Description:
Blueprint lengths: L1 H13 L2 H33 L29 H26 L4 H18 L1 H16 L7 E4 L2 E8 L3 E5 L5 E5 H6 L2 E3 L5 E11 L6 H13 L11 E10 L5 E12 L3 H18 L4 E4 L2
Antiparallel strand pairs: 1-2, 1-5, 2-3, 3-4, 6-8, 6-9, 7-8
Amino acid sequence: MSYIINFISKYYNSINKEKIVHSIVNFLLSIIIFILFYTFAKISVNKIQKINVNKKEKKEKDDLIIPKPNPEDNQIFSQLHRKFFAEFIYYILIFIGIIFALTKLGVNISSLLVILGTIGIGLAFGFQNFVKEIISGIVILVLNYFNLGDLIKVNNNIGYVQKFNLANTTIITNFGETIIIPNSLISSDSLTNITKNKSIFVFIPAVLSNNQKINYPELLNMITQKVKLSKFVIDKNEVVTIIKDMARVIETGEAGTTIAVKAKIESANYFKAMNNIRLIVRQTLEEKDIRLFDYYA
Length: 297
């Protein structure tokens, strides 16, 4: 027992107590520095996201599926910009906080940054497609392609912009489906921002079988008059129904005639208006006992 006590006493006396206390103090200070930067980052995020927020509107839940664009947004600093820059500044401040904390612990930051830089260059060469997405994301952000909550169409996918980062954009369709679209596809393909303007023209086509006798002038006029009665059509004089394609050949070998309705609607009512006009066209065709070969939009 005396041997153990002598060993502990000898070991204790050999310890540099001042150095241990200094290390503990530096460790605690590094934690405090990180907490301060973390707190400042959270405050900055909240401040940036609340810029130009309409105070009259009710506060939306954080788990809202489709964000609503703020009417006071502008092209320079929209809701999308606020959210992106808030997250960007948040991670930058967290990174700086970590650097200061490591510095306080005596870590050689210069060597660490060189290592991180080398790894970053290697990753950039190894993930060239990812870098391409990042560049496309920057282009989308700078040129203000859309805002959060906007209804867009990309590569036959139509949905509301739910989330955005430099790599991809998440949209949610009218059926509740979540689609993640690479930003390079958005910047290279034709993008339609449906809600960019207050009102838009839509074309609703239908393909009729040619194996029946149809009085086209009468049919087109009837569809036009009925579509004009739709509550979603905002300019009755702009409604027109035309024959778009007289000799559409279907895969089965049967020929069909494509007709199309053109109408002006409010972009905010896009899905409701499209469904309503489709229903009017289908009901009119059924009333005239005209077989609908194919129907799409």
